Amino acid sequence: MFRGIVTLLTLVISLSLAGAAQAQAENERQALFVRLDEATLLRLGRQAQTIVIGNPSIADAVVNDGKTIVITGKSFGTTNLIALDRRGEIIIERQVWVQPPSVSILTVQRGDEQETYSCSPQCRRTAVIGDTNKNFADIVNQAQTRNGLAQSQATSR
Q1: What is the pTM of this model?
Q2: pLDDT tens column, 78-97
């Protein structure tokens, strides 16, 4: 009798674990993988009225033409996206996983300090979340200064 109960419990637990593994695999198939600082498109079967992002510091999403959503990776992590139609009904709900940039990134670790380089084809410093504050601030300031100069020259023409 005891062996029968143990066998039954083992079977129930195995089926539960198999169901959980299958659900996780399904979620991963349904997940949207976006690279940091890159955009990806999600095409819908019908018009979306509202887009909801669980954590907008991780990803951003905008409706392009009603049936196309543009999703941009803003920082590493996982969040979710929900698209609603005009009546407020869910069209789609997906996990959004923001992953590191493409393979042309080189990370240099010196103790607890990190610097990141974009190497395509030559290596240049770039600002990536996780870099030391000074490195990150220096790169961002340089980029903002350069962009400001380019905009002021474009408007003066």
Answers
A1: 0.61
A2: 999 999 999 999 999 999 99
